[in-house]
Write a structure and sequence with these properties.
Layout lengths: L1 H6 L5 H4 L3 H22 L2 H5 L4 H8 L6 H16 L7 H36 L11 H8 L16 H27 L3 H22 L15 H15 L4 H17 L3 H17 L2 H4 L5 H8 L1 H19 L6 H35 L1
Amino acid sequence: MSTVVSQVPSASASASGRLGIIDMLRAFSSQLLVWHHLAFYGPLADQAYPLAPVLLDWLIDPARFVVQVFLVIGGFGTAQHLARLQTPGWRPFCLEIVQRYLRIGIPYLAMLPVAIGANALADRWMDHYSISAAPTVPQLVAHVFFAQDLLRYEPLSAGIWYLGIDFQLFLLTLAVAMLSLRWTQAKGVAQSAHALAVTQLVLAVPAVLSLFWFNREPALDCWGCYYFGSYFLGMVLQWVMSGSLPGAAFWGYLGLVAASLAVDWRPRLLVAACTAVAILLASQRGRLRNWPDSRVIGYLARISFSLFLIHFPACLVVSGWLSQWPLTPAQAMAGMVAAWGASLVLAIMLHHLVERPCWQRRSS
């Protein structure tokens, strides 16, 4: 998700010439993620279930595939960023990693104490599996480096596993891009075109392996290779839209996605494919390119990363506080709406107090 926030602009499409559909996808997907976690973790959803069983069942299971939207747009943004790389070497490589960490890490580190406090507060009001125990020092260190899932520590908040996956995927693509630049430099050929071609060819290998092998192994879901097929779909999309690959490359890779689905049906890959096709079609249609040109959607897209970070601690506290009383299904549903509203308020605060000032300092 961090890639979505940091590299795909959220300004008015008509003013910037960029795709409004990406803002819409970011805004909608981040809101849907909040409701997925509200439904999946409860306890308000358990009490509200008789009121809207079909809706809550959908939010619990199919809605979780929304992560594929983040993966496709994340790959799209990373491909944009890699196109600007010019100098290979260890120093630029390490600098890119540090900048990437700071871009997503400062708001994330600001969220962690809030998550710890929210778990402690909710624990006073309810006994529920969604509450994390007080963290140990090694657990905190693992969280700081996005390694909690790799090291099998209990996460302090829902959804933050994605940050580790996003970081792994960026490291892989950055390493390949840097090595391609170095190789073309050593060969004495034009760097920009040849290095990109080498990068595209090399990255296609783990992408295909992901579609037909890695993504079929649930034990690998804490590693970036599990998700690389969807991530690479976003990269191919950007390369086609920027003219560095022919349109046939996109449809050819989409054919591989379809073939992998024929081998092993996975709805998550279908969501990724539909996301990429929707973005491509919008980019090729004059009116759709600027749709929806909305300030509200643009703002929700801008705060989407902050909402992603802070929503679960907010939902946990609201759910814990309301669990002290017996609720009717209607009251429980109203409580879910209140938790969603609290998430938005805290996301706005995190965005304006931490995320936005951080970006302004880095760009000044």
